[in-house]
Write a structure and sequence with these properties.
six-stranded mixed sheet; SH3 type barrels; 80 residues; single chain; 34% strand; mainly beta; globular
Length: 80
């Protein structure tokens, strides 16, 4: 399913463990979601492929802690 049209800026991001661990900054190039800055002032990116559902939040296919271990610290634009 295509979730791009349902994801909005500042929506909470929830892991499969039902814990909110991030907030959407905006959709970015390369089918990624840019997250707002963390407590250290850094942005992170996650792929849209991790999204399983969108309602009042963006729900992922993995727990928040796993997502944090696997998210990217580099903008997809910087990889080109």
């Amino acid at each position: 399913m295509e979730f791009k049209d349902q994801i909005r800026d500042h929506m909470p991001v929830v892991g499969s463990d039902a814990n909110e661990f991030a907030t959407v900054d905006h959709l970015d190039d390369g089918d990624t979601i840019k997250l707002t800055r963390d407590e250290n002032g850094k942005h992170h990116w996650i792929p849209l492929a991790w999204v399983v559902r969108v309602d009042e939040a963006v729900h992922l296919d993995r727990p928040g802690e796993q997502a944090k271990q696997e998210w990217s610290d580099t903008s997809p634009e910087a990889l080109h």
